[in-house]
């Protein structure tokens, strides 16, 4: 089997592959780029695996006029920059020791050893510079069937890195055929490895969950997470019940997938995930806005996109469709302009008294449906 695509034919990628081959080494694109190309999914990053040792990669790159950057040299990774584009080139590796979070590795001369240390069969596909696919662990049949399956023993793969529990659900949401069901051996291994989730950093868990929730329809995968007990381990108190209805509402309203919107509908504040300040603030704003019944006010304070999110979250939580007047209320709020300015109350009022008066007038104006005029309010 062969794989094709602009990503493989690109001159920078070919330059790196040919550089390694000209030096007498094996060189393969590997992982997501090969998987996505075979599935007809856009390719973003190109990773390369080789039997060349890191110092050999550096020497070959320099001799070829390319720029080597030792981004992960201790783990065998050199970023080779060609025409301004970076390619992570990693020496074949085999695990020597793992603790569920990181691994001690040794370099290998064999692509088969490199393949068996990866997580899922569909991620252990390799392709050379001409697109010929190498499948050391039987990933092609799983890819064709759109089945996410651990390489070898699921329990062993999970013990090597407990984040693979969350990665299983993420890859299931993005690439699996939902009509086929999930691999029972994988689910059994996950159930046995749940305690390991507590050893993971909040940052790694948060990043993986947001990637999962960014899938077109993560609801079946998240529901399965809840069934096997994984969701409660990483998001105590979370419920997947409203996620499916939210996806349906999003699709009907033309809303693009949004991981934070979907995280909000799970009913958690996200504090245990150590999100960025901006992300955490947005979740807090969602919670506050959901306590306000005035959608027009929400649109006035936060904008149309945020108000539409709130309307979708509220409808999904209640198990009802979007209200027919949703767009009209949002338009009303977005176009409203509070008619009173601070100077209208000065110099009679100053400082805290001025602020309080403006706040009181604003409250009256919002309660009127933005109908009170400046004269009404000042009278």
From TrEMBL:
tRNA processing among keywords: yes
Span of domain tRNA nucleotidyltransferase/poly(A) polymerase RNA and SrmB- binding: 183-238
Keyword Transferase: yes
Keywords: Magnesium, Metal-binding, Nucleotide-binding, Nucleotidyltransferase, RNA-binding, Transferase, tRNA processing
InterPro entries linked to this entry: Bact_CCA-adding_enz_type3_sf (IPR050264), NT_sf (IPR043519), PolA_pol_head_dom (IPR002646), PolyA_RNA-bd (IPR032828)
Protein's organism: Salipiger aestuarii
Gene3D superfamilies: Beta Polymerase, domain 2, cca-adding enzyme, domain 2
Example of a GO MF term: nucleotide binding
Name of this protein: Poly(A) polymerase
Domain named Poly A polymerase head: residues: 27-149
Any one GO BP annotation for this protein: tRNA processing
